[in-house]
Design goal:
Blueprint lengths: L2 E3 L2 E4 L11 E5 L6 H8 L11 E2 L2 E2 L5 H7 E5 L10 H5 L1 H5 L4 H14 L10 H13 L7 H13 L5 E5 L7 H18 L2 E6 L2 H7 L2 E6 L2 E6 L1 H6 L4 H25 L5
Parallel strand pairs: 3-8, 3-9, 6-7, 7-8
Antiparallel strand pairs: 1-2, 4-5, 9-10
């Protein structure tokens, strides 16, 4: 598929397959076509040429609103409804699908547990119930950034999609919260057997999370493979430069630690 915006070819003849249950990372710098690709999968924009198949069916034959209810979408700017509570935000898509109130309530409780927003597991039963109800009814504007992002993941999972699209979902978080949410999402994905496409410009995040990584550069697919394949056999100078970044950073940290041990840096 390709996508043009006037004279700009944002995505140029991209062709790839995401296997069921796989987490594919789209990796590249700003303007490489990552987010445009994700938007085409969700029909937020349509390809200028080519086709996208979901379970063998051309998504152009599926009404956009119907398609989007089958796909979970999580992005950095969240898009939570600030005037709604946590539970109301999570319930948006099931409500649009006509689920009854009891089913929605049960799904909200299930997702609060899944994204670890329900309770402290060390508390007693009475306190657990109070904590869960408090979180359900809390306005999302009162939550921390990490908690809001967990609500965003829960909302994307609400209608039980088999495909998740994630556009730099943890990029604005502090390092500790970011690592915690990365691990949490990997656990959720395995538990639910989700297929996911995850956009990032962070090389280390790509290596740690992806089953395979598709490196994009100037709208084109530079290389696709497992983290090991890309590290051991980069296909282009650009891929090699990306893959060497974590090693250079690790080497710099190691040098600094040696200097600290030797007393040369205070």
């Amino acid at each position: 598929m390709s996508k043009r915006f006037g004279e700009l070819e944002a995505v140029n003849s991209l062709s790839l397959t995401v296997e069921p249950g796989e987490l594919l990372v789209l990796l590249g710098g700003s303007g490489s076509g990552k987010t445009t690709t994700l938007k085409m999968v969700n029909r937020l924009v349509d390809p200028s040429s080519g086709a996208i198949l979901l379970d063998g069916k051309d998504i152009a034959d599926i009404e956009p609103h119907v398609l989007r209810r089958r796909i979970g979408y999580v992005f950095q700017r969240l898009g939570l409804f600030p005037h709604m509570s946590v539970a109301e935000n999570i319930a948006v898509t099931p409500s649009l699908l006509g689920w009854d109130a009891e089913r929605i309530s049960e799904r909200v409780d299930e997702l609060l547990r899944l994204v670890e927003l329900d309770t402290d597991t060390d508390t007693d039963t009475e306190t657990e119930t109070e904590t869960k109800n408090e979180m359900r009814d809390r306005p999302v504007t009162e939550l921390s950034g990490g908690q809001q992002q967990r609500v965003g993941v829960a909302r994307a999972l609400a209608a039980k999609p088999k495909l998740m699209l994630l556009d730099e979902p943890f990029g604005a978080l502090d390092p500790i919260t970011r690592e915690r949410l990365q691990q949490s999402f990997l656990h959720i994905r395995k538990e639910l057997d989700l297929t996911a496409i995850f956009v990032t410009h962070d090389m280390l995040e790509a290596l740690l999370m992806g089953d395979r990584i598709a490196v994009m550069h100037e709208g084109k697919l530079a290389q696709i493979g497992t983290p090991r394949e890309l590290m051991q056999a980069p296909a282009t100078d650009y891929v090699e430069q990306l893959m060497s970044t974590p090693k250079r950073q690790a080497d710099a940290v190691e040098r600094l630690l040696r200097l600290l041990d030797d007393g040369e840096v205070s």
